[in-house]
Amino acid sequence: MPGENLTRDEARERAALLSVDGYDVSLDLRSAVGDDPADGPRTFRSVTTVRFRCAEPGATTFADLIAPGVTALSLNGRDLDPSEVFDGTRIVLEDLAADNELVVDARCAYSRTGEGLHRFVDPEDGEVYLYTQYEPADSRRVHACFEQPDLKAPFRFEVRAPEGWTVWSNGVGKRTDGVWRFAETKPISTYITCVVAGPYHYVTDSYTRTFDDGTTLEIPLGAMCRKGLAPHFDADDVFLVTKQGLDFFHDHFDYPYPFGKYDQAFVPEYNLGAMENPGLVTFREEYIFRGKVTQASYESRANVILHEMAHMWFGDLVTMEWWDDLWLKESFADFMGAFATVGATRFTDGWITFANRRKAWAYRADQLPSTHPVTADIRDLQDAKLNFDGITYAKGASVLKQLVAYVGQDAFLEGARRYFKRHAYGNTRLGDLLSVLGETSGRDMAAWARSWLQTAGVNSLTPQVLLDPEGRVAELAVVQEAPESHPELRPHRVAVGLYRRTGGVLERYARAEVDVEGPRTVVAELAGAEAPELVLVNDDDLTYCKTRFDETSLAALRRGLGDMTDPLARALCWSALWNMTRDALLPAREFIDLVLTFAARESDIGVLQMLHAWAESAAVHYTAPDRREQTDQRLAESAALHLSTAEPGSEHQLAWARFFARVANAAPAFEMLSALLDGTVTLPGLDVDQELRWAFLDALAAHDVVGDKELAAELARDDTASGKRHLVRCLAARPQASVKAQAWAQVVESDELSNALVEATLAGFARPSQRELTAPYTEKYFAAIERVWAERSIQIGMVVVQGLFPSLQESQETLDAADAWLAAHPQAAPALRRLVLEARDDLARALRGQACDAAADA
Q1: Of 4, 115, 135, 308, catalytic
Q2: Residue 826 · residue 789 · CB < 8 Å
Q3: Do 829 and 40 touch, CB atoms closer than 8 A?
Q4: How far apart (Å, rounded) are the C-alpha atoms in residues 816 and 820?
Q5: CA-based Rg of the chain, rounded to a whole angstrom?
Q6: 276 tagged catalytic
């Protein structure tokens, strides 16, 4: 990674100096097929012509390119010696003219890490598939450029590809004389250009919209995947959501989709969920489901489709100047993804998923020592890479949800419309957005931004209830608290709901909206109400906060959480209880008791699956060590019971089957999994398809019930790219010292594995039942991570540093080892220190949770 970084100051200096008029990029990808080279990386030819202006003729700057070599260089017709001006990451450009033309003929390397131009060979049929992924700064691995978001320009691509391939890019393409040539794009940033090439299975459709002024917009639609996944590809549903989203955003944004066609590519070994390349959105192919999944998976895919579509306006049409304002696209897309999912598709409970799942990500990130304001201080590209986090996405989206409650939906959307029209194809900062929102709402946006966008941390809101002698509410107040590290008390627009039992169910009977400000706010509207059994602060999930309960409300949840009829209110209560568990305010055993008692009554499948994940995490990380075995046994027995009694063929049955596989820990559970695998036991309605088979085998391999022979036989049954990834994970999960040593060597000492197989190996390496087996790697981890960070790409470095942190070695000794490394490496890369600091904080939190759970015995 040395030399590949770019600082904010460098980017600002270059932006003040240059204006880019256009790029012509010619790629020759015919080298993607054929035998591997005898030495060195497999490369392709990349010829780039960049036309740009310089505000200070005679000045010096640089262009970006990460490549094994440059064959020829010229600037304004003057040949340059590559050995003198190219250092492997930058091309020095001296004595610039007012108008300039740079031509770079380079040998660029295909990627196996998902960065740049990724090359994947399908083990099923030997076919080669290519795609690009650039964010935040990897287009320089494919062609020379000025790699920063505020130097936008039109792009024209031409690509030579092997016979029989199809090539796609941002613009409409046509193959003539063996060359694919693509229409010039609108001015866009380098990180959202894209090329996809290979023998992809491709399906087409179209979208038509007639606007009020009589004009008609026609958008060609396409969707693609590997040929091996074609039998599973439900393109009709992808197109349905796509059309619903285009209608929704046209209705609300009053700015027609600006990028011509709309292709969506589901690609292999993808590092992200998806990427908003205009006209050619890329997704991880796991969104094509090889087996039965719950509606939560379909909802998640729809949300991602709409999230990326929102980027066509927030991010692609109008782009942040620098990564400090990454939230200007990601927070908005995250909010708009949920907003459109609820407003346009069949997934009308999308706000429940948002409250339960997305906010959980935000709450965790906002309590780490690396927390930052939504508008962050991004010094360089390594900072930017790590800031695609729960704050930039989920907290930012939560803050926008609060903003909608604060200014009103109409004012918010009118502000967005003015923002697009005022800054189309340009770059913006925070102030540009606040200006239009101030115009449309009449509110003081500067004060709101200071509290919500420019400070870090999460507030806690707790109800206080005083009753009069008649048993009615004399006073109800909301107490706001903030951690010492981030003491900001924010203005919150919240709904406070009062609940009581009626006819055996727990229902809301009174509600008031109030602006909470300062440490204590009285909710005058609820005075005189009948005494509640439960007070839910932040009912309807209007704000971003940690909800707390008074003792009366907590007792009501212990008695009857499953009796709450409102699924959103129920999800909010579960989320609050989980936050209390993570904060060591509720013993892990009590949270698990609540899950075991009430989870089977949960109607929302996404919430149920989240409860499974939280219960598993509570057992692994927050349960007192001397109670783990008993807790694991209870979870396995409960999962087996609910699997057996769930409605046959239901998605709840499938969710319990997957949970049962994850928590199986003793002979009876292993016998049941084995019998379901070989068919000697069947459950009505449960289809043990290939994906579920691998889930069962993963558990059996981790407990040494199956070994190499059985896993090899399963690969023969599923000899596909997906099957290979499952196999690698299962092999690394086997409980032998030699297996762990091999897995360690494969990801730490070698770079032979692709990004997807590195992730699969790490997923198998550390298992809760194997703490003693992986304990020796704590010391090795801290000895190796600085070298790994220096030698590997930032993507692989992040995955290895996060994936191998000894989080299961939950002891003061491990905490001390992390502290010792941090103290001894003050000059280590800030991004690397951040990853270690975050993992260290999670470990410290686990130890506090275990102490809380142990204290429950006292």
Answers
A1: 308
A2: no
A3: no
A4: 6
A5: 28
A6: no
